[in-house]
Amino acid sequence: MKELFVVTHPEATHHVEHRVGGWFDSELTERGVEQAQRIASALATSVQPDPALYSSDLRRTAQTAAAIGEQLDLQPIWLAELREKSYGAGEGKPVAWFRERFVPPPLDGERMDHDEGLEGAETKLQWARRVYAGMERILSDSPRQKIIVTHGGSATLVIARWIGMPLDALTHASFTVDSGSITRLVEDDYFHNRTVAHLNDTAHLGS
Known about the structure:
Layout: E1 2-8, H1 13-16, H2 30-44, E2 52-55, H3 59-72, E3 77-78, H4 95-101, H5 124-140, E4 145-150, H6 152-162, E5 182-187, E6 194-201
Parallel strand pairs: 1-4, 2-3, 2-4
Antiparallel strand pairs: 1-5, 5-6
């Protein structure tokens, strides 16, 4: 059996300051640091020795991966491909500023290459191609258990690539996950089917 544990970073400063994340390099709050330790403890009870650990290189995910690596004695492999979607000029801006300028995608028609009205922002297609490229690297590595530390938005693309969704099937795809969650993905050794075994587990965070 192959297993992937997809971790979303816990509470970061841009959450509590009501700012746009994206590539804005926020860090974990004091609460987020505690939550990262809880994530690490939960993984320690679930993984076999020597899984591979991959992480987005942004500070909030790097801090999360460092907590996991310390508890499991693993060295993270940093992959910029796992970063959150880039919102260009909107990154780090107040959420209210962002909402005034953001152009949502249409219900029908071109959604993947849609211009959201923010200078320098990635389209959904650019973002998906980037995360899928990172997943190609991860899936080609030999360990049968892998931990991937990423962001709430990019987690959808990690899961989508795992279950084999082509890029043109992502127009409306979304897997809702909370900050600090763990999603478990499994491939069986007989049929080689890939399953989303547990989505958005946050029980380890407590109340």
